[in-house]
Write a structure and sequence with these properties.
The protein is α/β, with parallel strands linked by helices. It is built from 14 helices and 16 strands. The strands form 3 sheets. Strands 1-5-6-7-2-3-4 form a 7-stranded antiparallel β-sheet. A 7-stranded mixed β-sheet has the order 10-9-11-12-8-13-16, with helices on both faces. A two-stranded antiparallel ribbon has the order 14-15. Helix 11 runs antiparallel to helix 12.
């Protein structure tokens, strides 16, 4: 370990952070911890860990340059630039962290990956660390893995009770095709697992086909079946043997081309069985032309597609500091909300450094959100059920604007309207919807 140059950090009251170092035995773990405790980087690391936990950080990125360390925090899907750290303090902190993770603290160019554990106010979590040399110095990513409130069921995701009542019968139907859609890193995997979890997995046999090495967190009683694309295996090549097991539900985690989509539709109709798959898109209707871009048989797709489930994630307003305001009548009209239906909306109250109260004291940030105005995320869910009119439009005029008009005429509630409901309930803000839906 580098030798101490400055002990001033030890004069600061340190947070009650405890570490468990990496190691194959308890003796080795204790040795690695004892090695770093006297280090000048240890107090800095404790302060950093406490800070990321208090701020609900998912990922912290440290960019080491010749003179300073730039810091960014990913919180609820949004990157925040933090005050930089001086290079010397950053070097000592990183050396301490690498030693705790069982890494070579002297190596600053080659990629390294390790982990350690930490405890802060009875909150346990893993610190996964990846370091890599870059042209400007070194980049270090710290990923916090902790037990957060679950987002594993449709209810956890924020799907309305009525929408769940409409979706669940479709997920327990003896046949048909249900498509799950979202954006990458925006709830794509989370929504997929929640939809799979909505199936009745105790009275029927369920299987999910996924590429080898790319399996996600297992859904109970959804038996994974892996295929190896490098060896020439495809989902279709595994189907003959799999069908001998007489499954009731088949889920295809990756939709590669139109041939696979045609096979999925054939199985849904001829076996018959319920099939599920997923594709990237911003909302349910946009998924239709994306499916057609794979060049399946439009008629077969129209006949077998029963529903499309979509979701976007939005940040939730902090319940402790959100501020009410009366929306202008023209805003309500634009959102399609009748006059006098909603008396107030809410907006975040960001921390303003230097703002004083009536007694001249600086107003501190909110203890819960640390001045961001948001804590956690919820889903804006959408369910598009295929009507006869939509099935015809899918084959004759599958443009998004035309499909949207046909869906609205059939009573479909768009994702935009679902999002407005969250604003009206005070769960999120108009500003957050503008940020998310501008992508």
């Amino acid at each position: 370990m580098p030798k101490p140059k400055d002990q001033s950090a030890r004069n600061i009251e340190l947070p009650p952070v405890k570490f468990e170092a990496a190691g194959d035995s308890q003796e080795e773990r204790d040795y690695n911890l004892q090695l770093v405790e006297p280090s000048p980087g240890f107090p800095t690391l404790m302060l950093m860990v406490a800070d990321v936990v208090i701020r609900h950080v998912d990922t912290a990125v440290f960019d080491f340059t010749p003179k300073a360390v730039a810091i960014r925090y990913l919180i609820d899907g949004v990157w925040h630039k933090m005050p930089p750290m001086d290079r010397e303090s950053g070097d000592f902190m990183l050396a301490t962290l690498k030693q705790l993770c069982g890494l070579n603290y002297r190596e600053r160019r080659q990629r390294q990956e390790g982990a350690c554990k930490a405890l802060y106010f009875e909150k346990k979590f893993n610190l996964k660390v990846i370091s890599q040399g870059v042209p400007t110095g070194e980049r270090v990513g710290i990923y916090l893995e902790s037990k957060k409130p679950p987002m594993e069921s449709l209810e956890d995701l924020g799907m309305r009770a009525k929408m769940r009542e409409q979706l669940l019968p479709l997920l327990n139907s003896p046949s048909g095709l249900v498509v799950v859609t979202a954006l990458p890193n925006e709830g794509y995997s989370t929504l997929w697992r929640a939809v799979l979890g909505g199936c009745d997995r105790f009275l029927r046999d369920h299987y999910v086909l996924e590429p080898q090495g790319q399996g996600e967190k297992e859904v109970i009683n959804f038996h994974p079946v892996a295929y190896n694309p490098a060896a020439g295996e495809t989902p279709q090549s595994l189907l003959p043997e799999l069908l001998l097991r007489e499954p009731h539900v088949l889920a295809f985690a990756e939709l590669s081309d139109g041939n696979l989509l045609n096979e999925i539709c054939r199985l849904a109709k001829s076996v018959p069985l319920l099939t599920l798959t997923r594709i990237y898109s911003r909302h349910a209707i946009e998924a239709v032309p994306r499916l057609l871009a794979l060049k399946p048989d439009p008629k077969s797709l129209a006949e077998n597609l029963t529903a499309i489930v979509s979701m976007r994630l939005v940040r939730k307003l902090c319940e402790y500091c959100k501020q009410p305001y009366q929306p202008a009548p023209q805003v309500l009209a634009k959102l399609g909300i009748p006059p006098n239906r909603v008396q107030k909306f809410f907006r975040p109250l960001p921390f303003q450094p230097g703002k004083l109260d009536e007694e001249g004291n600086e107003i501190p940030p909110c203890d819960v959100c640390q001045g961001l105005g948001y804590v956690g995320r919820t889903g804006v869910c959408e369910l598009l059920q295929l009507t006869p009119a939509l099935r015809e439009a899918l084959q004759t005029n599958p443009r998004v604007d035309h499909l949207t008009r046909v869906a609205e005429e059939g009573g479909h509630i768009s994702m935009r309207d679902e999002a407005v409901v969250l604003v009206a309930k005070g769960i999120t803000s108009l500003e957050e919807l503008q940020r998310v839906f501008s992508k």
